[in-house]
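Protocol step 4 of 6.
Sequence for Cell division protein FtsA (Paenisporosarcina quisquiliarum) entered exactly as in the expression construct, tag removed. Do not edit the line below.
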Amino acid sequence: MNQTELYVSLDIGSSSIKVLIGEMTNGSLNVIGVGNVKSNGIRKGAIVDIDATVQSIKKAIDQAERMIGMSINEVVLGIPANQAMLHHVKGVVAVNSENREITDDDLDRVIDSAQVMSIPPERELVNLVPKQFVVDHLDEIKDPRGMIGIRLEMDGTMMTTSKTILHNVLRCVERAGLQIREIYLQPLASGYFALSEDEKNHGTAFIDIGGGSTTIAVFQDGHLTHTSVLPVGGDHLTKDLSIVLKTPTEQAEKIKHQYGHAFYDDASDDELFEVPVIGAEMKEQYSQRYISEIIGVRLEELFELVLEEFYRMGLQDLPGGVVITGGVAKLEGLSQLARHILQTRVRLYTPEYIGVREPGYATAVGLIRYAHMEDQFFNRFGGNSALGQSKKPEQQSPAPKKQKQQMQTKEEDKESVMGKARKFLDKFFE
Ligand SMILES: Nc1ncnc2c1ncn2[C@@H]1O[C@H](COP(=O)(O)OP(=O)(O)OP(=O)(O)O)[C@@H](O)[C@H]1O
Ligand SMILES: [Mg+2]
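Step 5 output, structure tokens:
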């Protein structure tokens, strides 16, 4: 049966807010709407101005809505990993049913029981990800439902973040008039799909270089094990160019996109381009190699900081190497420089979906796919509440018929294990 589920993801980044509307059919994603607007009010991945952020979110949502001619109700929200902490948790329950068959209810209860670990008052739960289930000492079970047993255990990772960070993000989304379907730690959702199974199992660092921050996420034995955020990103490159070339920020950003190169040895020295100088009539001429030195210095410093983080995380080795994404991954020569400094294999990740073939969309795409994966695991299907009423469509893109039908089906309230976050959100919005 071809069942299509609709999802809307929201990635509140320091450079831009991204909104994706995606249809998931038989496990494959089809992006049908995109909103991408410059963000205001976010620095280094954290919200510093609520009103400005709300306005930016509204604009991005509006852009995506216009593409499909429907209003957006509910989003899958990414939470930045600033101040995130991962804790190992365990849960144990006795199997309930008389015939000892493990059911959805047992699964719910064992995940619940793993949540009893007390969370300090200044922190809040974001996600609880099962690593393995154990049925009567038989371990490494991915899904225990349908198995026969007496005792069900679960090993998992609890991801928490600072209450302040989370509540400010939630406040902005709420003020933008949106409901939240699920929340996920950004690198959990994006890394999970950017890395291959082998990479996740062998030990790989997933690095998202955004505008104001760089997020490092390490996956080992198939799971996210470490996260860390450095307050450095592409905006620093723009600022450096603007200062050294004495050119306005907007020009510096353009030059970075058009001529930017991260690796001095490979940058071209032949072609010169003109750069306007602040407060002067004349223009200066520079080569790509010249600006690659400015960009390279900052990025070298960034990768040195990444190495320090690896050391701090106690990583001995990364057999799967490094995978880089985020807007800055588009910069020419970036992988060469990363290889040179990190001394390991480096590949770049770009999501391969029509309309979002940009590394900057890695998080927004990951959020949709992660939500869909969990919905499948927990059988949370049966309707779509992501979209609401019809809006006046853009001239060239009338609302697809299918969504009109779906919009009328109201999602039943499906209490789920991983809906714990949602429960908490309800509490928050009361
Ligand atoms: N072609 C390009 N060349 C160089 N840099 C680029 C290019 N395209 C985008 N960038 C840079 O990527 C950065 C934005 O990346 P991204 O959209 O991933 O950030 P963000 O998610 O908004 O920010 P963050 O994750 O830090 O909160 C900006 O600094 C932008 O200048
Ligand atoms: Mg980002």
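Step 6, annotate. The pocket of magnesium ion (ligand 2) is lined by residues 13, 208, 210, 326, 363 (CB under 6 Å).
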